[in-house]
Design goal:
This protein is mostly helical and 80 residues long. The protein has two helices and no strands. The longest helix has 29 residues.
Length: 80
């Protein structure tokens, strides 16, 4: 069995996923909060649902992306 040597992506410096990810999380959280406020004031279920999904993405994005990155870096490709 032969294992392919795939170069790994460089790790980001410091803790977490970097400043860009933190900014994206803050923007999504703010957009979700504003959407919840607008949806509540206009009594719109669709806006409330979309805003709740945006908030879920905002708070789960770091865990998902770090898990995906770690899984991709530690995967072993095998030749079939």
């Amino acid at each position: 069995m032969q294992v392919l040597n795939i170069p790994r992506a460089p790790r980001l410096e410091g803790q977490g996923l970097g400043e860009d990810m933190e900014i994206l999380e803050l923007v999504l959280a703010a957009a979700g909060a504003v959407g919840l406020f607008i949806g509540y004031r206009k009594n719109s279920r669709n806006v409330l649902l979309a805003s709740a999904l945006v908030l879920s993405c905002a708070f789960g994005l770091a865990d998902f992306s770090s898990g995906f990155r770690d899984g991709f870096q530690h995967s072993v490709a095998r030749q079939l």
